[in-house]
Amino acid sequence: xxxxxxxxxxxxxxxxxxxxxxxxxxxxxxxxxxxxxxxxxxxxxxxxxxxxxxxxxxxxxxxxxxxxxxxxxxxxxxxxxxxxxxxxxxxxxxxxxxxxxxxxxxxxxxxxxxxxxxxxxxxxxxxxxxxxxxxxxxxxxxxxxxxxxxxxxxxxxxxxxxxxxxxxxxxxxxxxxxxxxxxxxxxxxxxxxxxxxxxxxxxxxxxxxxxxxxxxxxxxxxxxxxx
Length: 227
Fold this sequence. Notes:
Rossmann fold; 227 residues; 2 domains; 10 helices; 5-stranded parallel beta sheet; alpha/beta
């Protein structure tokens, strides 16, 4: 009697185990076929904020710069993401072009490209940043790296001819390369003493927060379209 009970219990346990293993296997196959990978097993998306002092976070703690604040905001929105700080203070578009490859590591999913302010402040002919940014976009396209272009605008005291030539760089390139454009990186911040450092040019911590509040929804849309 006892032996029969033990055998029955053992058989029941084996049957239960086989059903469990079958269910797990079916679940795994369903996940693969549906293309849904559990987030616990997926790597975070790596995005490089490639630019100058505006992305580097000039005179700000590292966790208050644009890349870090944007990363936190996107994580709050449910994105598993790492935003790498690829900003170098003082860089012109020529400097950015020269370091483009070694700044962008393997495994990068997308680029936020913000350069040109220092070209403008130095009064360089707008044809120079146009050519350099175009070369960068061509190279990133060859690497199959999606780009979100962050635009810049010339200071109005440079005169209407310069302003027109410079300001048109970003929308023209965005159209040519079919990339999303945020028209002016310092939108809502430039000229506001409460949102800029004492130099009146670079965003302070509150200014960075303002930039992120305006750009994050657009960056999120951009990320949603990544292959």
